Amino acid sequence: MIEMKVAGIALDAVSRSPIVLLRDAAERRQLPIFIGQEQARAIISALENQVPPRPLTHDLLVNLLEEWNMVLERIIIHSLQDNTFYAILQVRQGEARKEIDSRPSDAIAIALRTKSPIWVMEEVIADASIPVDRDADEAERQAFRDFLSNLRPDDFKQDGRFSKRDES
């Protein structure tokens, strides 16, 4: 799993639909997830630390968690099926832990309000992420190719010699 942060909300150029952008800590990969208008507003209000005069749906859920002494440990975006992302809320109450199915947009809105981490399964990142910095990715690939091309058998010796175990 890879921990991600909300990089912001964008609009798709063609459909004008909101997209939440998650970015990894190295800021090398970005995961775009199409969301609804209401979820976009909920995420933006959490990012901007806006407090509504009355609790909205995500605020209500956070209030319920607090009243029942429950902690949102993290959210996990665990799969992508037919262009639909799936997420869970990992909630703890005392020693009891539960996983609750959620849309990623709702899970993100709640995680932002509770300052809980956002995790994404590596398979989802591999399938749906886009590179943020293609030049840095290519530079890293080239550095690895250079490293491999300069390897010699002597680089694998311990203290300048193989152990008896390695020779047999």
UniProtKB/TrEMBL annotation:
Gene3D superfamilies given in the database record: Bifunctional nuclease domain
Pfam families hit by this protein: BFN_dom
Annotated ranges, domain BFN: 1-132
Any one Gene Ontology molecular-function term assigned to this protein's record: nuclease activity
InterPro entries: BFN_sf (IPR036104), Bi_nuclease_dom (IPR003729)
Superkingdom per UniProt: Bacteria
PANTHER family named in the record: VON HIPPEL-LINDAU DISEASE TUMOR SUPPRESSOR, VON HIPPEL-LINDAU PROTEIN
Descriptive protein name: Bifunctional nuclease family protein
